[in-house]
Structures are given as structure tokens and as C-alpha cells.
Write a sequence for this structure.
């Protein structure tokens, strides 16, 4: 019996299921979809990678396949090869696929640097969302509509990240993106996705507050924002702000906004070299985050940003001084289960 066969259904079901409020410390009674970001090249070239995804995941998301730099080689061309390939894999293996990401400041192709002014920018935003969400209408139950809108270090007066979108449209780009996505696929869960909102440091707290301000503003205008994505790229050396995360989730639920964990991994460059100690510390951080969320309400899905340490973005920016390899993900480089996978299985209701 494959681990993932212990639960059926997908995002939409979990989102609608009336899940019992998990009491402190308890894992949920109902199953939560677990999934992973997927690299298009490894999906084709690495049979063990494919087997691990099939073994463990009910859900996949393209790590890069639906970003502007992949989908939009030029202003007039849309390339869905990567997204369609992953959707075919998901369909063949009884999985759901979610979309990442429609509007972001990064991974933008060079031609977009010539977009100027509110009207041209809104036209580009609308054309992209209408075409991409339209292409997958009814097939993707969830989209990251807005990714990383919050300033790196937000202040009361300056809390949104400068970007093509903000610079040309002002903060209405966020509202406009959600409305266009809802019009393109009324069935999809529409998500605003953010990182560094989970820990005890003052910056995480400020980012959480800024994100709450954005969501409150959207809800006050009845914008169709359905959920907040905790990316969950946890810095292993930082404690989870359990109280802060729980009250943040409670504020969102009070506005009828769900949460999901979208890109979970633990950046371990400052954790102990000993692999057993490091893996335990990593599992502990994720337990603290998930418990803080579940103590208020179960997320509609849990996804890690990759499934094996063999394919992770972490060493792009966070290599270890001792030269040992990063271990941020649920399976090691040989696809062996680590304590992090066991934590996820417990919170996803699969063990
Ligand atoms: O595919 C090309 C390859 O042909 C080329 O030789 C190589 C060297 O230039 O680049 C390869 O593309 C890289 C791509 O990852 C695929 O590996 C891009 O340069 C590189 O910028 C890209 O990085 C991705 C990054 O987002 C930017 O899109 C990471 O893999 C991906 O993990 C990361 O994911 C982000 C989420 O989307 C948003 N949240 C944070 C998260 C981590 O940064």
C-alpha cells in the first residue's frame, strides 16, 4: 500500500471538508493532501524521483514550469509544455496539481522590462492571467495568484515589495490579479503566498502583520482571496513563533480565509553537522509550525519545495561552511525517508 493511498481526494475536498478543530498536540482526524514541487527535467530523467513522487504525493506543483520565464518566451507566445507535462503526470497518477505562480517580481523574462505605465502593465497582467488560468480552467484546484508581495523589511508606511506590478499599478495590482483569476476559473482556490512569516524574529512578525494588512484590505473590498500560503522556507536556527502563527491563522479564519503550507523545507546551513541531530532539529521546526497552524485550523494542503535533498534550491543561497550537503527535504538524496517525512505523514493524517 503506497503511503499516499492512505488518503484520497484532493485540495478542493480538503478545502470543503468540515475538519474537526485539531486540539493542541493532536494531528487531524481527516486526511490533508501532501505534495511536492516538481522539477520538469528530473521528472523525465530520474525514475527514482518519479517513483518517490508517486509513493508519497497526492499533489504536485511545478517548481518553475508555470513561471513567466518558462511560459512567456515572448510577449505573444505562451509555452505550456512544462505545465502540461506535469499535469499529465498528475492525471496518470491520481494526483492533483496546483499552479505557481501568476504574479511575482522574479523570474520575469527580459522583454517584460519594456512594459511601462499603468495601462500597459494592467494589460500584461490581465492577458497573462486570462490565458494561463484559462488554459487550465477546471483542472488546477489552486493557484498562487500573488507571490511575495510584502517588502523584504516592511514598515508601517512602506510594506509592499517594489516590482513591475507595484511600480506601475500601485497596490491595486493585487486586487486586480485576484479578480482576473476568479473570472478565469471560478472553481480555483486563489492564494496569496509569502515567506519568512513563521519565526520569532522581529522581521517575521512585521512581515506577518503586513500580510494581514494586505489580506484585510482585500477582504474589505470583497476581493476573491481564498487562502494564504505559508511558504515555510524555515530557517533552522530560528524558533517558530507558535503563538504568532496561531493568532495569524485565527485572524485569517475570522475573515473566512484558509491557509496552506506551500513550499516547506528547512534551511539547515546553521544547524549541526551531525545528520541525526540535524534531521531531528529540522523535524522539530516543522512540527512546531504545523502544530501552530493545526491548533487553530488544518491547512487545506501541505507541500514541500521538493521531495528529495537531491533536488533543492537551498544550496543556491545557503551552503554550509563545513561543506556538508544540505538536508532540507523529507527524503534524503537516496530517497530514504527522514524524520521530516514522518512529521508530515502524521499531520497529513497518514500515520
Ligand atoms: O534551467 C536552467 C538551466 O538550463 C541553466 O543552465 C541554469 C543556469 O543558469 O539555470 C536553470 O534555470 C534555473 C531554474 O531555477 C531551474 O533550476 C534558474 O537559473 C534559477 O533562477 C531557478 O531558480 C528557481 C527560483 O525559484 C527562481 O525561479 C529555483 O529553482 C526555485 O526553487 C525557486 O523557488 C522559489 C519559489 O518560486 C518562490 N518562493 C521561493 C522559492 C525559493 O527561492
Amino acid at each position: 500500500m503506497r503511503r499516499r493511498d492512505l488518503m484520497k481526494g484532493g485540495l478542493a475536498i480538503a478545502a470543503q471538508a468540515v475538519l474537526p478543530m485539531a486540539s493542541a498536540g493532536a494531528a487531524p482526524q481527516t486526511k490533508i493532501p501532501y505534495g511536492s514541487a516538481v522539477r520538469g527535467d528530473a521528472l523525465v530523467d530520474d525514475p527514482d524521483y518519479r517513483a518517490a513522487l508517486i509513493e508519497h504525493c497526492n499533489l504536485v506543483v511545478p517548481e518553475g514550469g508555470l513561471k513567466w520565464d518558462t511560459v512567456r518566451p515572448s510577449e505573444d507566445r505562451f509555452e505550456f509544455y512544462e505545465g502540461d507535462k506535469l499535469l499529465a503526470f498528475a492525471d496518470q497518477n491520481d494526483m492533483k496539481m496546483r499552479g505557481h505562480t501568476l504574479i511575482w517580481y522574479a523570474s520575469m523574462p527580459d522583454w517584460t522590462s519594456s512594459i511601462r505605465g499603468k495601462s500597459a502593465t494592467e494589460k500584461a497582467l490581465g492577458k497573462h492571467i486570462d490565458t494561463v488560468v484559462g488554459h487550465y480552467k477546471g483542472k488546477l484546484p489552486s493557484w498562487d495568484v500573488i507571490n511575495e508581495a510584502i517588502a523584504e523589511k516592511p514598515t508601517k508606511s512602506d510594506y509592499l515589495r517594489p516590482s513591475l506590478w507595484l511600480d506601475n499599478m500601485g497596490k491595486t495590482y493585487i486586487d486586480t490579479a485576484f479578480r482576473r483569476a476568479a473570472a478565469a476559473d471560478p472553481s480555483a482556490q486563489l492564494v496569496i503566498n509569502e515567506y519568512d512569516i513563521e519565526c520569532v524574529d522581529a522581521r517575521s512578525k512585521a512581515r506577518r502583520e503586513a500580510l494581514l494588512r494586505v489580506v484585510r484590505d482585500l477582504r474589505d473590498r470583497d476581493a476573491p482571496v481564498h487562502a494564504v500560503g505559508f511558504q515555510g522556507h524555515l530557517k533552522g536556527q530560528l524558533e517558530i513563533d507558535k503563538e504568532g502563527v496561531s493568532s495569524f491563522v485565527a485572524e485569517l479564519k475570522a475573515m473566512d480565509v484558509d491557509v496552506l503550507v506551500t513550499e516547506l523545507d528547512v534551511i539547515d546551513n546553521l544547524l549541526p553537522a551531525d545528520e541525526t541531530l540535524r534531521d531531528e532539529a529540522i523535524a522539530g521546526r516543522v512540527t512546531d509550525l504545523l502544530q501552530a497552524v493545526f491548533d487553530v485550523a488544518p491547512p487545506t494542503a501541505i507541500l514541500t519545495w521538493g521531495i528529495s535533498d537531491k533536488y533543492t534550491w537551498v544550496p543556491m543561497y545557503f551552503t554550509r561552511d563545513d561543506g556538508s550537503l544540505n538536508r532540507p527535504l523529507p527524503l534524503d538524496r537516496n530517497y530514504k525517508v527522514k524524520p521530516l517525512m514522518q512529521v508530515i505523514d502524521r499531520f497529513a493524517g497518514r500515520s
Q: What stands out?
A: The beta strands are 34-38, 59-62, 96-97, 142-147, 189-194, 227-230, 233-235, 258-267, 302-304. The pocket of G3I is lined by residues 63-64, 67, 106-107, 147, 195, 231, 263, 313 (CB under 6 Å). Residues 6-24 have pLDDT under 50 and may be disordered. The chain has one domain: 28-347.
